[in-house]
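_Per-residue structure_
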Amino acid sequence: MTVSRGPAPHTTPDPLAYGAEATGDGSRGGPPAEAADAGPEERLARLGGSWTWLLGSAVTTLVPGILILVWPDETLHVLAVLIGLYLLVTGGFRFVAAFAREHGDRLAGLLIAVVYVLAGVLCLRHPLQTIAALSLITGAVWLVSGMLTGWAALAAKGMPHRGFVLGVSALAVVAGVVVLALPSESAVALTRLLGLWLVLLGVAELVLAMALRSALGKNRSDAGAGRPTV
C-alpha cells in the first residue's frame, strides 16, 4: 500500500491482455515528459491498457453477432466474411493490448492475437467456406484464447476485476467447447449459435470495459484527493 502524489501505476484488465498497467486516465504510468518521448512500444502499451480499447474489442465482437442473429438466412459467403473480419479485427485489438502487459506475460497475448489473425484468414478463404469449417475454426479460437486468457488471469493475482476476467475466459472456453461438440447437420442452428455466442462474449467484454472505466475513475479521484491507492 502506497500513498500516491498523482496518478499511480495501476494494474487493469484489458480486453485481450487482461493485466495492463494503467494510470487513472487509462494510460501506462510514467512522468509526462517520458510520455511525450515514449517509443512505439510504450505508446501501444498505453493504448492497449485503456478502457476504450476494451470497449472497441467488445463492439467488434457484439456487432457481428447481432448481424448474424438478425439475418440468419444470409448466404454462407456473407457469414464467412462477417466471422473472418471479426477474427481479423479482434486479432488487431489483441495484438495492441498485449503490449499493455508486462514483458514476461506478453507472449500469451501475442499468441492469442496470432491465432485470431490466422483464423480470420482461413475463414475468408473460399475453399473453407462451409458452416462446419467456420464453426470448427471459430470454436477452436474461442477455446484456445479462453484458456490462455484464464491462465494469464490466474497468474496475475493482484489484477483488479480478476473474477470478471476469469468469467469472460470461462465463457469463451464454454463457447468453444459447445461449438466444437455440436454436429454440423443443421447449418441454421450452428449459424444462430455462433451469433448467440458472439453476442454473449461481446456483452461480457462490454461489462468488463464499464467496470474498468469505473475503477480508473475511482483511482483518479483517490489520487487527486491524496488518498492511499494500491
Q: What stands out?
A: The chain has a mean pLDDT of 75. The radius of gyration is 19 Å. The chain has one domain: 9-219.
